[in-house]
Each structure stands twice: as C-alpha cells, then as structure tokens.
Design brief:
Blueprint (H helix, E strand, L loop, with lengths): L13 H22 L4 H13 L2 E2 H8 L6 H10 L3 E5 L7 E5 L1 H21 L5 H18 L7
Antiparallel strand pairs: 1-3, 2-3
Length: 152
C-alpha cells in the first residue's frame, strides 16, 4: 500500500478527498438501502417520521427538503409497501397526516441494527476515537452549510 505522499497532488487535496469519499460512501449507502428495498429519499422520509412522529405532508416535505409536490410519489411508494399510512388530520379534514405503520417501524429498526456494521466496514481504516473525531468535524462543516427548518 502506498503512503499518502506517494499520491498525485490532486489526490491529497481536501476537496478531492471529500468529493471522492462522498461518492464512494453514497454508492455504498445506496447499495445498502437497495438491499432493504429503499431509496435514499424513502429512507429519509421513514427516519424523519420515526424521529418526529406523524407529520402533515407539507411539514414532512420541509423536514426532508423535498418539494411538497415531489414528496407525494415517495409517500405513494412507501404506502404501497405498507410502510406508512395517511390519515385525516384530527381537526382539519383538508390535511393528511403521515405516520409509520408497524411494518415501517420494524424496517427502520432493522436498518438501524445493520447500518452500524455497514459503517464500520466503510470506516475500517480508522480507530473508534478517530471515527468519532471525523464525525464531529464533518458535522461542524455540514452545520455551517445546511439550514435546518424551524419546527412548525
């Protein structure tokens, strides 16, 4: 195995490394989700509902950063698999609430239990403290670039 300094200059730059590793991580994660029959967009919707509880479609679209018109197709695909249910809002019949079903909750639990192993495999070159430090640094960069919508 060659050392980092044996690499061409462009392969040592932070931007290149972030972009390349991002691409490799995205492919690895997409393959992992595909193994569970999900796309990234579907997974994000399921996890968001699991974390925030049942949500209106518009608010859910805001939380997952998907255009409100485009989230319908994602929700339709999840509903067809029995992972979510749409129900009428308690006080406003024009609004629909999206909630996880028992099957959806079970799938999220399964993914959570196996995702750590997938992540460990991807980050196998790092010690546990190095992984925590990397995650901390990446969250700092991410938080400086991404706005999280306020609760409604």
């Amino acid at each position: 195995m060659t050392g980092g300094n044996d690499r061409p200059a462009f392969e040592r730059g932070t931007g290149f490394l972030l972009a390349r590793l991002g691409s490799l991580a995205a492919r690895s994660w997409a393959a992992f989700l595909t193994g569970h029959g999900l796309t990234q967009g579907q997974y994000v919707v399921l996890v968001t509902i699991a974390e925030h509880g049942p949500q209106g479609q518009r608010r859910l679209a805001e939380l997952v950063a998907i255009d409100a018109r485009n989230i319908v197709a994602v929700l339709d695909s999840l509903a067809a698999r029995g992972l979510i249910e749409r129900r009428d809002h308690d006080t406003d019949r024009r609004r629909r609430i999206v909630a996880l079903t028992d099957v959806g909750n079970a799938l999220i639990d399964t993914i959570a239990a196996t995702a750590a192993t997938e992540q460990d495999q991807f980050l196998r070159a790092l010690t546990h403290p190095d992984r925590e430090h990397l995650n901390h640094l990446l969250r700092q960069i991410y938080d400086s670039h991404v706005h999280i919508p306020d609760s409604a």
